[in-house]
Design goal:
Chain lengths: 169, 212
């Protein structure tokens, strides 16, 4: 692929997926690693691996694979080279000034708290589920069978609802 | 109802912040990063190989220069060991740089486990390939050092140092034994402090993924 065309493609992928990548990074980042560090690493791995992408799944599903693999590697402490001084200047994270409904913020806080009680692999499944992915797509990302995912999701959802319901009500 | 509400909360969480990316600058930064990583990998490989090549050159020279037969054998063994170390490091580096992020989570965990097991074996067996062989070579080398006059060897440095006294040989060998014991301890420490906990966390995740 021509370089300019490739850059354009990369830009489109990032633009379409940046928020979902950040949501995943936000769940997995544990101080001193910040979501921005993981986000940057995901962007780097997407760029590095884009040539090897095989179109037997959608590019957006592939982005999920990269994001979760980067985040899980950081959990396993396999990558120790995150440093604030190495942050890209081309990526800016700016909080939105407008007032956000406090009840929504609170609910989001409870949701994150409850997700943090799950183990690493259950967390992967729940973030994919909350992003409205089908079991088929989750199968492509995780390597588990649809049936296995269905059984696991039933248990994970129950655990999540039991945790969040008393907090929200 | 709650299920959809949770999905809405999750998807709306992105609204609390804005991510802006200047793509042109980003591709430049990404290119710089990949070049810098490749440079670091190359420089690490060069350092590892240079140390062994320097060793090969030194022992090659000694093999040619020193007339004592036992010491010559030690020099030959040392050269063979340095070549072995180069091959071992190169093989290990090649295996460790192959991380494919586009694999499924289950495959990625399997891959990581294989890599960590290789790393673990390398460190765990360091005593047998990284400490004992060079110690034996040094042992043979020092024990084989005789009196240059007996071999009509005229070398001003050798004449000023040799023959070594028995006590000096023993002292040097004890020092070397301590040095290789320390090397072994460093490898064991890396194994217990870094590799084993990572391996355990990979196995824990694999178990989590298998469980229903």
């Amino acid at each position: 692929m021509h370089k300019r065309k490739e850059d354009k493609y990369f830009e489109e992928i990032l633009e379409r997926n940046k928020h979902k990548i950040y949501r995943i990074c936000n769940i997995y980042a544990i101080p001193p690693i910040e979501p921005q560090d993981l986000f940057q690493e995901v962007v780097y791995q997407i760029w590095k691996s884009l040539d090897s992408f095989k179109s037997n799944s959608s590019i957006d599903t592939w982005v999920y694979k990269i994001s979760l693999n980067v985040c899980l590697r950081s959990k396993m402490k396999l990558d120790k080279n995150y440093s604030k001084t190495d942050r890209f200047e081309s990526i800016h994270f700016t909080p939105i000034e407008k007032e956000i409904d406090t009840s929504v913020q609170e609910k989001l806080k409870y949701l994150k708290e409850c997700i943090s009680t799950l183990n690493e692999t259950d967390t992967s499944l729940i973030v994919l589920y909350l992003d409205d992915l089908s079991y088929k797509e989750i199968e492509v990302i995780t390597g588990l069978t649809e049936n296995h995912i269905a059984v696991k999701m039933k248990r994970i959802r129950k655990k999540l609802f039991e945790c969040i319901t008393p907090k929200i009500n | 109802m709650l299920e959809q509400e949770l999905k809405d909360i999750w998807n709306n969480s992105s609204q609390s912040g804005q991510i802006s990316i200047e793509t042109k600058q980003l591709t430049e930064e990404l290119s710089t990063k990949i070049k810098s990583i490749q440079k670091k990998i190359r420089s690490r490989a060069i350092k590892e190989i240079s140390a062994s090549i320097i060793g090969i050159l030194i022992f090659g020279y000694l093999l040619f220069e020193i007339p004592f037969p036992v010491t010559k054998v030690a020099c030959g063994l040392a050269i063979a060991w340095f070549v072995f170390v180069i091959v071992k490091f190169r093989k290990s580096n090649l295996q460790n740089t192959k991380t494919d992020f586009s694999l499924t989570i289950a495959e990625q965990l399997n891959n990581q486990k294989t890599m960590m097991l290789q790393q673990s074996n390398l460190l765990d067996s360091a005593l047998y390939w990284y400490a004992i062989p060079p110690f034996i070579m040094n042992f043979i080398f020092i024990l084989g050092l005789e009196n240059p006059i007996d071999y009509n060897w005229t070398n001003s440095v050798a004449e000023s140092l040799l023959p070594l006294t028995f006590n000096f040989k023993i002292g040097t060998l004890i020092g070397l034994a301590l040095f290789y014991a320390f090397t072994y301890w460093i490898n064991k420490r890396a194994l217990n402090k870094d590799v084993k906990p990572t391996l355990e966390s990979i196995e824990k995740m694999q178990q989590q993924i298998k469980n229903e």
